[in-house]
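Risk register update: the risk of archive-format incompatibility is retired. Evidence:
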Amino acid sequence: MEATVLNYREKKLKQELAELRAELKALKSEKKIVKSQNSFFGNILNAIPSDLVVFDKNHKYQFVNPKAIKDRKIREWLIGKTDFDYCRLKGKPYSLAKNRRRRFNQVLKQKKEISFEEKMIDANGNDVWIYRTMFPIIVDGEVEGVIGYAYIISHLKKMKSDLDIAKKEAEASIRAKESFLANMSHEIRTPMNAILGMSQLLREADLSPKHRVFLEGITKSANNLIGILNDILDYSKINSNKLSLENISVNLFEEITNCARLFSLKCEEKGILLETQISDELKKTCVKGDPVRLNQVLNNLVSNAVKFTAGGKIALKAEVVKNNKTSLGIDFSVSDTGKGIKEENLKSIFAPFSQGDNTVTREFGGTGLGLTITKNIINLLGGELNVFSQPGEGSLFTFSIEFEKCTRVSKTKKKDFSNVKLTRD
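Archived output:
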């Protein structure tokens, strides 16, 4: 009986010993895995290219990576200590540790991430700017620690400083240019207006046909020079973002027919058929906009069409494509049967000081700013200028603008130039 009991106990002990050995083996394997994982994550944290630290909820260091502090002994010494201890060790100002503690307490209180800039002095006495971020480790709704990381932004600070200096210099240059253009405009406009005034008086004098031709040349040249001045000033305003738009009552029908009237005589002299096609809705609808700038756009486009068309037809169209209670959408177009534009020149047609090719400047003159200004004004009005052209077949310029309706309709009656057809007799 006793032998049987002993054998049973021995067997049970062996079984328990085997289980313990299995558990020990499993623990060793698990420990090995944990050690491997710790090593893996430790290598990652140490390899991060920015300062990385971990604090407990009492603002004591729990981890510091080599990027934050290179000296391994100091890193190991710092564990369990605070920024006050570190600043005393390194001889850094007390205010630095105090400011970091204030930021730390802010994270504890708000339970959310904060970022701030910090200026330090390096070993050579140079300013070093650092961007720091601290965010909480929250467990069951409570902050159990804080993770902080940082990186140097001194180069970004220098770039910003350089950009600020460059911006101020550019603004000063723009102001100088604007002042120069304003003064130039004043100095040239004054004698030009005098020349135009005297020319107008001379028209009433008894001049010979030869002298009258000379007078027309003087008047035309003076008007051309004033036109060039206006283009340069408008282009300067556009570049400086100082070209402002009015938002007043506009009768589009009247504005478009006025444009046709302005060029009717010139078209008649060149034997060009001028057509206007305007939607009937525009006769009784008033919109809000800038009549001066809209006139400038239409005049520039029609003027170009007249300039580059030796004969044939020019069509000015305005078609209503959207009409509701509050707004009116209109497609504008100016087409001609002139010399057209080469495909390779279409890409630069809206570039400043560009006129398609060099022969245009020699033959027709001008600054090459008209289409640039026109396109920018249309952009400000909320539209986009497009061009379609074939050499020898003419050009088509189109743009669409959506206007806000207004209640007041202009009562001034203007001559109806719809479908005007002008030819030389």
